[in-house]
Write a structure and sequence with these properties.
Elements lengths: L2 H12 L8 H14 L6 E7 L5 E9 L3 E8 L6 H4 L2 H8 L3 E2 L11 H8 L4 E8 L5 E8 L7 H35 L1 H8 L8 E13 L2 H7 L2 H21 L3 E6 L2 E8 L6 H21 L1 E4 L2 E4 L2 E17 L2 E7 L1 H16 L3 E4 H6 L4 E7 L8 E6 L9
Parallel strand pairs: 12-14
Antiparallel strand pairs: 1-2, 1-6, 2-3, 4-5, 5-6, 7-9, 7-12, 8-9, 10-11, 12-13, 14-16, 15-16
Helix pairs in contact: 1-6, 6-7, 9-10
Length: about 400
């Protein structure tokens, strides 16, 4: 392999050009530059472990003439026979190179290498990619060149690992920040924080449909079941709502015990309030069906659940609120306060879904007026609406 071309590739990695591209584009560019410089590369893979509650890692696989395939794996892969007999397991656990020549009988311990031989591979090497934080990630390099990789080829691969690790770590850290912010504060709020809105007092005013829900009988449930069981129930219960909320354009801002606060932004310039509120109502119906179907086995019995959700629409203040260096990106305002008060009324009325007069006026539907109720903190009684399709259920 041409040494001056190899140096140019290392310099290209170090100057950060790749970081400005989509990962798949950068990886394809990287591999094509190596091939043009003389490395007989047929297939390349880079496997980056992630800091995500559900995803173990992401993989990017380049094949000559086929571009880059992107995938991800969850933590269940760690318990599979395929991973147990994978060269990458050794790389992740021991941080060492693993070479497998399909012609070498010792490579039979790696079924993947046998699979690659069937596609014409003559050599395979997995090389660790150490990050500065001590975590180990991995690359795999495969050739179809007769005789496999030469000593010079292996030296060239090792030479690009350090700059590849640095640029990969930069991209990975930014993606990790995005994922963590998305996971813990929501995608819109996360984007704002990552974009620099980190000072206390930074805020925007926006119109939104507001969703505030909680589980019926949660206090009693917590009192009679082990804490670990309650946590598992809450996770499944929230799953019933979060998928519907996000699927219909909402953002979950906060979990408060068994309570959930979400907003569905409304573009006032487009005038899509009716469309947004219709999607909110559809999310509420989907969540209601999911919660009703949820059956959690406890001992010899099964726990069933009910919840209530209040829907309102109005202007909210959306931004950084907190004390000292501990901030929360959340929403406040009279509209949020009203939604919280209405949510308490759902239990008294035996309803799953209640809406404010403002929401019912925007979301034209078969609503049933439930009456006017005095609301703490509000000077006037508020008219409340329920779905005509619902039959009130008074909990004992």
């Amino acid at each position: 392999m041409n040494s001056s071309e190899l140096q140019r590739i290392c310099d290209w990695l170090i100057d950060g050009t790749w970081a400005a591209q989509e990962p798949a584009v950068g990886i394809a560019d990287f591999c094509e530059r190596l091939v043009a410089a003389g490395l007989p590369l047929w297939r390349f893979g880079i496997f980056i472990r992630t800091l995500h509650p559900e995803v173990f890692g992401r993989n990017f696989i380049w094949r000559q003439g086929q571009g880059v395939e992107i995938g991800s794996v969850d933590f269940e892969i760690l318990d599979t026979p395929e991973f147990a007999r994978s060269p990458l397991r050794i790389v992740f656990e021991q941080g060492i190179e693993v070479r497998g020549r399909p012609s070498d009988p010792d490579s039979k311990r790696f079924p993947f290498v046998d699979d690659m031989r069937a596609e014409g591979a003559t050599d395979y090497i997995a090389v660790p990619v150490p990050f500065l934080d001590g975590s180990i990630h991995a690359t795999s390099w495969i050739t179809r060149q007769p005789g496999g990789f030469s000593d010079d080829d292996i030296a060239a691969i090792r030479a690009v690992i350090a700059p590849l690790a640095r640029i990969s770590e930069i991209i990975s850290q930014r993606r990790t920040a995005e994922m963590l912010l998305d996971t813990y504060v929501g995608n819109r709020a996360g984007a704002r924080v990552l974009g620099g809105q980190i000072r206390r007092g930074h805020h925007d005013t926006m119109q939104a449909a507001i969703w505030l829900s909680d589980m019926r009988g949660f206090t009693a449930l917590s009192d009679r079941l082990p804490a670990e069981t309650v946590v598992e129930i809450l996770n499944q219960y929230f799953d019933c709502q979060v998928a519907a909320i996000r699927g219909h354009g909402g953002e979950v801002l906060k979990f408060m015990g068994d309570g959930l606060l979400a907003v569905f932004p409304i573009d006032e310039y487009v005038g899509d309030a009716a469309h947004v509120c219709a999607r909110v109502l559809e999310a509420a119906r989907e969540s209601r069906a999911s919660v009703e179907a949820l059956a959690f086995p406890v001992g010899d019995g099964v726990e069933r659940f009910r919840f209530g959700v209040a829907l309102h629409v109005g202007n909210i203040l959306y931004g950084n609120i907190g004390g000292g260096n501990r901030l929360d990106f959340t929403c406040i305002g009279p509209a949020v306060n009203l939604a919280a008060r209405l949510e308490k009324i759902t239990g008294r009325l035996g309803r799953t879904v209640v809406a404010s007069e403002g929401f019912a006026n925007v979301c034209r539907h078969d609503w049933h007026q439930l009456g006017e109720f005095p609301i703490a903190g509000f000077s006037k009684a508020q008219r409340v609406y329920g779905l005509a399709e619902e039959t009130p259920v008074v909990m004992a």
